[in-house]
Amino acid sequence: MSETAPGRPDPGEPDLEEYRLAARQWLAANLERREAGPAGLVRGGGTHSAEEYLPERALQRKIYQAGYAGINWPKRYGGQGLSDAHARAFAQEAAPYRMPDLGHAGGTTYGPVSQTLLRHASPDFLARHVPRILAGDELFVQLFSEPDAGSDMAGITTRAVRDGEGGWLITGSKVWTSGASYADYGLCLARTNWDAPKHRGLTWFAVPMRGEGMTIRPVREITGAAEFCQEFLDEVRVSDDEVIGEVDHGWAVAQTMLLVERGAGRDDPVNMPETDPATIDPFLVELVRAAGRAQDPVARQALARIHTADWARGQLGRRITGLLRTSDRPASGIASYWKLAAGVYNPQRARLMLEIGQGQPLVWRDDAGQRAALEYLNSRVWSIAGGSNEMQRNAISERVLGLPREPSFDRGRPFSEVQRSAREWLEKN
């Protein structure tokens, strides 16, 4: 995200070691060290109100004001314009400290949303929103899936129509939105041309989550939490200034978002720490000890299987990132390899964790048991969210391997005609 070309040092950049030392000193003077033990967000580990995130937003603002947010983001939009190496150095130094936890909306904001915006939004849009994103004042979610359009994302029916006053009125419903209950904006895909084929005639909008006509309803999950939400949009007004990309050409923007969501965004140095193949996930160590099985050969074998697969998947992620960053026109299905690996492996990993913990995850007597149980309940998420395993296999076969596409009755037909044909078929059957 740096404004300089990759691999070319900017003569104006601070020396890397001097930068690291300054960051180390600032962190020690301004942030609290985090508590010892496994870190990481676990879906279902807690549900927070918007008010409970205010201290986290304040902490994000403090980091931003010190110049340590958006380190490798473009300088003209509020970032620091430094190299990935500088961002990685800060992430390494910040690891022992308590950093802002902005939940799933934070992960979406600083991951798929921000990278999509930086590639497709207008300079005016970026100048308005990116500084506020970096300061924690604006959190974004993805208003992508719909009750009748999940894996077939191009089949959405949320509509946006001109209101005659230089803006749009958006009506429809979105679902499975993580963190919508406390987010500020939603990056919303809506249909703006019903006479075009379904992959065309789509447009992206930045929709205010507290705007008039927006209703947000939490969806209770198997974990007991309600981090997912469904949104109902009833003529929510959005100005032309909040359009991302070109009107009716939103599928190109959607492809970027899906590419990042499915693994291509792992080029962010904060998300790609250098890994030591000899270092086992501390949580696994805590779990096996809590279960009293540290010397049990069966438990140790299961732990070794998890650790080996964790390391292999990490290397896969780095390999995919390298391919995507060094290719001018990477195959859009490349990121599906990482997404498919997660969808297949996560349920296996969670089952092995239950086998290691035995009764610990069932009775939740300690943090290790609770986390193992939540990991198991959430283990199917990546086999569905962001595109099912079947969709990833299709993407790999068609876009990477060049195999024939599956037959499709709606390709090239106006979406309004496709909708009419579907209704007639349902009426007859």
UniProtKB/TrEMBL annotation:
<dbReference type="GO" id="GO:0005886">
    <property type="term" value="C:plasma membrane"/>
</dbReference>
<dbReference type="InterPro" id="IPR037069">
    <property type="entry name" value="AcylCoA_DH/ox_N_sf"/>
</dbReference>
<dbReference type="InterPro" id="IPR006091">
    <property type="entry name" value="Acyl-CoA_Oxase/DH_mid-dom"/>
</dbReference>
<feature type="domain" description="Acyl-CoA oxidase/dehydrogenase middle">
    <location>
        <begin position="144"/>
        <end position="226"/>
    </location>
</feature>
<dbReference type="InterPro" id="IPR046373">
    <property type="entry name" value="Acyl-CoA_Oxase/DH_mid-dom_sf"/>
</dbReference>
<dbReference type="Pfam" id="PF02771">
    <property type="entry name" value="Acyl-CoA_dh_N"/>
</dbReference>
<protein>
    <submittedName>
        <fullName>Acyl-CoA dehydrogenase</fullName>
    </submittedName>
</protein>
<keyword id="KW-0274">FAD</keyword>
<dbReference type="InterPro" id="IPR009100">
    <property type="entry name" value="AcylCoA_DH/oxidase_NM_dom_sf"/>
</dbReference>
<dbReference type="GO" id="GO:0016627">
    <property type="term" value="F:oxidoreductase activity, acting on the CH-CH group of donors"/>
</dbReference>
<keyword id="KW-0560">Oxidoreductase</keyword>
<keyword id="KW-0285">Flavoprotein</keyword>
<feature type="domain" description="Acyl-CoA dehydrogenase/oxidase N-terminal">
    <location>
        <begin position="50"/>
        <end position="137"/>
    </location>
</feature>
<dbReference type="InterPro" id="IPR036250">
    <property type="entry name" value="AcylCo_DH-like_C"/>
</dbReference>
<dbReference type="GO" id="GO:0050660">
    <property type="term" value="F:flavin adenine dinucleotide binding"/>
</dbReference>
<dbReference type="Pfam" id="PF02770">
    <property type="entry name" value="Acyl-CoA_dh_M"/>
</dbReference>
<dbReference type="InterPro" id="IPR052161">
    <property type="entry name" value="Mycobact_Acyl-CoA_DH"/>
</dbReference>
<dbReference type="InterPro" id="IPR013786">
    <property type="entry name" value="AcylCoA_DH/ox_N"/>
</dbReference>
